[in-house]
Write a sequence for this structure.
């Protein structure tokens, strides 16, 4: 993964992309999806930690960055980019994110618990990182080998 480029045009194409990203995320039982995960290298992510059950939980982050963190927590994380793998990852217990909404308005989002994990996870994608990059070096090497074996097995079938 590579770091992404800022969004500079807030237009109908962006709205369409956001709608498509929510569809993709929900179809894959996800709670977050970064544009880079669908092959688009812009600083855009969608989140919904309610799994589509609460429309008010839907979030669109345009050009987000983590402004402040507090505490820490370990949670089991998975990723639509690395399906079928879960690992315990250390994340902040609270994050404050500076971002823009889908219309380009500056907003601040504060997330605690699972929302802090999701915000951090998606912003990592936009910065060119996977959650596996946050694992201790030894564990990261083991998991990468497991992922490679799974991909080779999948390609062979």
């Amino acid at each position: 993964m590579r770091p992404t480029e800022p969004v500079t045009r807030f237009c109908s194409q962006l709205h369409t992309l956001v709608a498509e990203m929510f569809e993709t995320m929900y179809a894959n039982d996800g709670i977050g999806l970064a544009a880079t995960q669908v092959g688009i290298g812009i600083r855009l992510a969608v989140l919904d930690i309610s799994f589509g059950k609460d429309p008010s939980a839907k979030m669109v982050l345009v050009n987000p960055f983590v402004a402040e963190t507090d505490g820490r927590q370990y949670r089991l994380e998975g990723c639509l980019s690395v399906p079928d793998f879960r690992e315990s990852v250390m994340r902040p217990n609270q994050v404050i994110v500076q971002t823009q909404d889908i219309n380009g308005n500056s907003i601040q989002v504060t997330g605690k618990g699972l929302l802090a994990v999701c915000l951090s996870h998606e912003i990592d994608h936009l910065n060119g990182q996977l959650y596996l990059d946050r694992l201790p070096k030894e564990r990261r090497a083991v998991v990468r080998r497991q992922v490679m074996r799974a991909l080779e097995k999948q390609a062979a079938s």
Notes: Helices lie at 12-27, 114-126, 137-156. The two ends are 26 Å apart (CA to CA). The longest helix spans residues 137-156. Strands lie at 32-34, 44-47, 59-70, 73-79, 82-91, 94-100, 106-112.
